[in-house]
Structures are given as C-alpha cells and as structure tokens.
Design a protein that fits this description.
Structural class: mainly alpha
Order of helices and strands: HHHHHHH
Distance between the termini: 34 Å
Number of strands: 0
Oligomer: single chain
Radius of gyration: 19 Å
Shape: globular
Number of helices: 7
Amino acid sequence: MGETTPAPTHWQLFWGMQQVALSSFGGGLSAWSERIVVEERGWMSKQEFVTGLTVARLFPGPNQINMAIYIGSQFRGLSGALAAMAGILLVPFALLMALGLAYYELHTSMAVNRLLAGVITASAGMALSMGFKIAGAYSKDPIALGLAGISFLAMSVFHVRLVPLVLVAGPLAMAWYWPRQPKVRP
C-alpha cells in the first residue's frame, strides 16, 4: 500500500479521515476520499483505492465508514481501523446533530430549501465525478465494463433490487478476478 509515502500514523489516519468527512459534508464522500487518500496524501494507488472501495461497498453499512475502516486496517490493523473510523465519524456526527436541530427550527424557510437544493446538486456532481474516475481505471477491461453495464441495466431498466444483484454479480465478478496461479510449463 502507498508506495510513494510511508504508512500513515494513527493520528494521520484520524486527521485524514476527518478531512474527508468535513470536505464532503453533504455528499461526495467517495470522490473526496479518493482525492485525499490517493492524490493528496499518496497513501494508496488508484487501483488499491478502487479495490478498497469495492470491498467497502460489498459489506453492509455506510460505504465510506467501511472504506475508512479498510484504509485504517491496511496500515495499522484494528487500532488503525478504529482511528480512521473515529476520524470519519466524530465531528460530522456532532455537526449533523446540530444541523438537525437547526433544520427542525427552520425547515419552513424558502432560503433553507434553496440551500439544500444546491447541496444536492453539488453532491450529484461529485458522485458523477467519482464514477468517471473509476471508469478510467477500468477503461481497458471489457469484462469490468460489461459487468458494470449489465448491473446498471439490471437496476435501472429491469428494476432488479440491489441485494439480489449483489448476490449474483458479486460472486461472478469475484470468480472472474480471483488471483490465479500462473500455469507452469514443462
């Protein structure tokens, strides 16, 4: 992991995940996570990040918390996972509670509704940006693009639910990409 820089310390994991959480408040966690972990800090390569993101999305629970746990555990084991998880949750949770109270008091205001519409638009753009970045990593892999296309069609056109799709496509993708021993030629 992270060939260009030394493994992050517990504090670096905590503050790095804190930066991800605060940069992406309102959406776009995966895009900000990729920018901070791969581009700014150089902890992982793009391929390592995409692998971690895939693993994080396969497990139940919020993807970015799973991703923080994955990143922390890759560098510092269980204690690193806990440090990264605390970083991604601590301040955002407190802010979310405060914003929830403020929204409860101000939810009828037109200005608040306009503000939320802007946040939603920005979040959609960040998610789209992350999709294009990930697509670039797999642009020369027709199997990956095919699986992504089939999954997209299954969900958007045929309205296949996420759980059955993951239960079918997940094992197929894992079987296809499972590391194989090279054949020894006599």
